Amino acid sequence: MSAAFRPATDEDVVPIIDLWTRAGLVVPHNDPARDIAFARSVDNAEVLVAVETDRMVAAGMVGHDGHRGWVYYIGVDPDHGGRGLGRALMSACEAWLSGRGVPKAQLMIRDTNTPVRDFYSRLGWTEEPRIVMSKRLEDGLPIGLGTVETTVTSLEIAARPTRVAKHAPSGVRLSLMRAAPPSVGFYRWLYEEVGRDWVWVSRRLISDEALREIIEDPLVEIYVLYLDGTPAGFGEIDRRKGPSSVELAYFGLMPHAIGRGVGRYFIDAMVDLAWMKETERLWVHTCDLDHPRALGMYQRAGFRPFEQYTETLPDPRLAGLPLPIRGHADAAVIPMRPSTVTQLHPKT
Length: 348
Ligand SMILES: CC(C)(COP(=O)(O)OP(=O)(O)OC[C@H]1O[C@@H](n2cnc3c(N)ncnc32)[C@H](O)[C@@H]1OP(=O)(O)O)[C@@H](O)C(=O)NCCC(=O)NCCS
Hints:
By secondary structure, this protein is an alpha+beta fold. It has two domains: 6-122, Gcn5-related N-acetyltransferase (GNAT) (Aminopeptidase, 3-Layer(aba) Sandwich); 147-340, Aminopeptidase (3-Layer(aba) Sandwich). It has eight helices and twelve strands. It has a seven-stranded mixed sheet, sandwiched between helices. It is elongated. Mean pLDDT is 87; it is low at 327-348. The structure holds coenzyme A (COA).
C-alpha cells in the first residue's frame, strides 16, 4: 500500500470530521473542528490525510510537546479498512515525528476500544504500565457535535411593487454590480463576510464543485453591493424554480456596512432586479439567527410573511463558526396573515 499522505487543507476539514465520525473517533467531549484548527495553527502538530480519487480514505493527527511525540484521531474510512491504510497513516505520522528529531512517540487508547491495541502491536508499538491523568484547562462548557434549531419565517411579494425604490443615502457612494458569475473563491469570501455573525453554514459545507454548479447556473444571479468602491454585501436571486417561485436566496450586508443606512436601498434594488417581466412571485426567508432587524426590513420592503417552520442546521463548528448566541432582544416577530399560509419546501 503506497498511500500518499499530506497536510490537511481548509477543504479537507469537513471530510476529515465525516471520516472520523464514521470511524467512531468523535465523542461528545471532543470537538474535532476545534482540534483540527488548533493542530493546523501551531508548528509542532499536523493533521495528515490521504485522498484517493477525490475521497478521503485516512486521516490522523500528529504532534509533539517538545519531548515526546503523540498521535491522535487515527482513522481509516471503514469502507477502506484492511488495505494497509492504517499502517501507512501510522508510518506517515512516525516519519513526521522522526523528521523533527522526536525520539519516542506515545498514544492513548480509550478503554472502550481495547481491540485496536493489536493493530498498534503489529506496527511495533508496545504497551507500557502507566497511569494517564488529565485536567481540562478551559471553562468546561459541554462540547460535542450537535444541531442548531432555528425558526424560519418565509415572506413573499406576490405582485409587482408599485412603490418608488428608496434612494441611496446622501454622502455614500454605492454601486450594485452583477458578478456573472463570481469565482468560487470570491463567492465564498462574500458569503463568509456577510454570514459570519448570522450562522450561515450551508454553503460553507458544500464542495467547490457543488457550489460552482449553483453560482454558474444562468438562472442564479449574484449581485455585489459596493460601498465607496469596496464590497459591502451581496444578494442572490434564484430563478431555477420558475417565475412563480423566484427566491431572494441570500441577502446581506457585511459588518462594516451595517448601520450606514444602505440596507433599504439595497433591498429595494434587489426586489426590482428580481422583478422581471415574467416574475409572478418573489419570496425570501429569514431565521431567528439572522440580524434582528432583518424581518422588519423585509416587511418594510413589501414582503408579507406566509409561513413559519423549524429548521435544523448542522453544528456550525463543523464550518469553523462558533455556536450562536441566542435571544436577540429586539427581534420583531410580526404575525403571519393566516389566509396566505402555504407550504414551501424548507431550504437546506
Ligand atoms: C485501526 C484502524 C486505523 C486500522 O486501519 P486499517 O487500514 O484497517 O489497518 P491496516 O490494513 O493498515 O492494518 C495494519 C495491520 O494491523 C492489523 N489490524 C488492523 N486492524 C486490526 C484490529 N482491529 N485488530 C487487530 N489487528 C488489526 C492488520 O491485520 C494489519 O496487519 P499486518 O499488516 O501485519 O497484516 C482502522 O480500523 C480504524 O480507523 N478504526 C477505527 C478508529 C480507531 O479505532 N482508531 C484508533 C484509535 S486509538
